[in-house]
Structure formats: structure tokens, C-alpha cells
Amino acid sequence: MATAVSALVLALLLLLGAASAAVPDINAIYDALRQHGLPIGLVPQSIVDYHLSENGKFTLELADPCYAKFQEQQVYYEKTITGELASGAVKSLTGIQAKQWIFWVSITGMHVDPESPAYIYFEAGQVSKKLSVALFDAPLTCHKSTTRESTGITAFLDSTVKALLGETNQLRKALQ
């Protein structure tokens, strides 16, 4: 579900690789991801600034919010992504969402399975989705809109469903 995989993937952000600078050294971000056992493709190419604290907490700034796609998984990156970088994982992640059916779910973390490093797990609360690490071998290119031609209709349906789910717990349970 959380296929957010995006996520950070998505995103991941891992971003953070090195200390922040006026002009970020993108290679330093990739190096930090590798040093933490994470693939570099979790980070979008549109990074304009980042900061990584000694305790692993990071902030990643993108030029603009954007969308990316991994296989059939649609991912949204906000302009600011935050989290905590750890060995083989990103914790307390904010700023990345993945589309599951007609819903957008927030990716809250990701980790590479130490027993099977060929897979990365994307977490959305208590739910996780496993994807091949190979999908994240290279930095991704983001787009300003989704790849669907029916973006307006999709946005309308998403907002309608979110409104309905917010109003009734019975409908929420029925859709789960």
C-alpha cells in the first residue's frame, strides 16, 4: 500500500548526505546515501539545498514539488522533505506521498532489508510495501504534474473521497 515508494522513496531523501552548503554538492548526497546502505535513486535530481545534522536529521529542498513514477507507482515529492537518516533506513519521513488506487498516502519511512538487500521497504504508518532496490539505481527525474492525462478528474475524485472519509468512519472501514 505504502508503495510510496516512491518514494523515497522515495525520496528519499537521504538526502542529506553531507553538510549543507550554499550550492549543494549533489555527489556528496549520493555518497551519504551509499554510506548508509541506501540507493541513490531515492533522491530526485532537482535538489537545490539540503542539511544533514550529526544526529542524522535532514532537510532536503527541491526546486519545486514534483511527481515521479516507479514502475506503476506514482510518487509525489513536496518542496521540503525531512527525516532522519540511519544505517539502511530513513525514519520520521515527511514530504513524500505515494498513490495507492485513488488515495495518496504519506510515506513515513523506508529501509533496506539487511537479510535481503535486494529489496527496499516503504512504510506508510503500520503498512509497508517492498520494491526492488534496482528501481532506484539512478537519480530520478521529477515532473511538475502527474503522468495521467486525467489529472483534473483524478484530483476531483481524490478530494471527494478524502472528504467522505473524513466525515464517516463507516465508509472508511468499508473501503479498507
Describe the protein:
With 176 residues, the chain is an alpha+beta fold. The protein has two domains: 8-143, at5g01610, DUF538 DOMAIN; 146-176, no CATH class. 19% of the residues lie in helices and 38% in strands. The protein contains three helices and ten strands; from the N terminus they run βαβββββββββαα. Strands 2, 3, 4, 5, 6, 7, 8, 9 and 10 form a nine-stranded antiparallel beta sheet that branches. α2 (151-167) crosses α3 (169-175). The model is unreliable at 1-22, 148-154 and 167-176 (pLDDT under 50).
List the helices and strands and how they pair.
Elements: E1 8-11, H1 26-35, E2 47-52, E3 57-62, E4 66-70, E5 73-86, E6 89-100, E7 103-106, E8 109-112, E9 119-124, E10 127-132, H2 151-167, H3 169-175
Antiparallel strand pairs: 2-3, 3-5, 4-5, 5-6, 6-7, 6-8, 8-9, 9-10
How would you concisely characterize the structure shown here?
By secondary structure, this protein is an alpha+beta fold. The chain has 3 helices and 10 strands; from the N terminus they run βαβββββββββαα.
% residues in beta strands: 35-45%
By CATH, the architecture of the largest domain is named Roll
CATH class identity of the largest domain? Mainly Beta
Poorly predicted spans? 1-22, 148-154, 167-176
C-alpha geometry? globular
Give the class from helix and strand content and strand pairing.
alpha+beta
The number of helices is: 3
| Mean pLDDT over the residues | 75
Instruction: Tally the beta strands.
Output: 10
